[in-house]
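job 3f2a | input accepted
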Amino acid sequence: MASADTQAAPIPAHEIGPSPSKLPILRSNQGNHVDEAYTGWMTPTPLSTPIQEMRERYNRNGYIWIKNLIRREDVLDMREHYFTQLAPTDILLPHTSPRDGIFDPFNDPLIHQGIGGTPEAQMHELLDIAHATPTYRKFLAHPSLRSFIRDFMGWKQEVMVERAMLRHNCPGSLSTGIHYDQYFLRGGKAEFLTAWVPIGDCRPTGGGLMYLENSNKLGEEIEAEFMRNAENLSPEERIDAFNKHMAQDGFLSHDAEEFGRVKAKGQMRWLVGDYEAGDVVFHKPYMIHAATRNEDDLGRIRLASDLRFYEEGAALDGRWMDVWRHDDGL
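job 3f2a | predicted structure (330 res):
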C-alpha cells in the first residue's frame, strides 16, 4: 500500500469528464422544459486524446466534441465578419461590437430569424451574400479542421459539400427542431461526417446543439420507417426531406420533452455542452439532435456552421454541391 504522503498519479487530460456544475433548464421551441432527470452533460474530448480513443468514443456515443480544434481568434474573426455583413438590418444592439454579436432586444427576434425563419427580403439577400464571401469560404477550409478530419476518418482526401450553412438565432427566436442529418442528404449513398462549428461561445441555454443520448439506432429505425412509407413515391420525392410523409418543415418535432418521453420512451437523456469558440462537434448521420432555445443572459446571438464531409470519390448527394441560397428548395 502506498504511504499517506504519496501523491496519486494525475488523471490523463483525455479522461477528465465534463464539469459537474448544475445542469441548466433545457427548452425547445414547443412544450414543457426537459426534466433534469432526462438531461446530462456531453463529454468533451481534448485534442491531445489518442486518435483511436477518439474513434472509439465517436462510434460508441454517436458524436465527439473536440475542444479547441480551431484557433479561437480565427473563429471570432469569422463571427465579426458575419455580423458586420448583417449590421444593416439593425440586428445588433447599438454601440456594441459585431464580434460580440449582441442582439438588440427592442427588435422582434422573429423578424431577424436566420435560416429556417421568415425574415424580411433584406435579410434573405444578406444571408445569400454571407454564404458566398471569400472570408467564409476560406474559414471552411481551415487547415486545423481539415487535417483533423482526414486523420480522424482515415481519409486521404475529404470533400465538403458546398451547401455549408451559417445558422444564427437570436434570443427569443426559433431554434433548430429535432432531426437527424441523413434525411436531408438522402441523395448520397455513402456515409458522411457532420461537423458542427459554434462561431462564438455558446452556453447550454444559448441555442447550441443538444443530442439525444445513444440515439443513432433510433434514427436508423425512424429513417427505415420513412423509407417504407415512401416506396410508392418517385425517386425524386423519396429523397426529399419535405415529401408528404415528412413534417411540413422537415423536422421530427419541436418538443424535446415530448419526443424524449414518447419516441425515446423515456430511456434517453438530452445531452448538452458549454461550447467555446474553437470547439467542434462531429456526429453521425442518424444521431438525433436539436438546438436549445436561445435564452442567453448576455443577449448573444447564437451563430454556428453546419458542415458535411465525404471521402473523396464517395457517392455523395450532388444536390448539396452548390452554395446555400434561401430559395434553393433543400
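job 3f2a | The radius of gyration is 20 Å.
job 3f2a | closed
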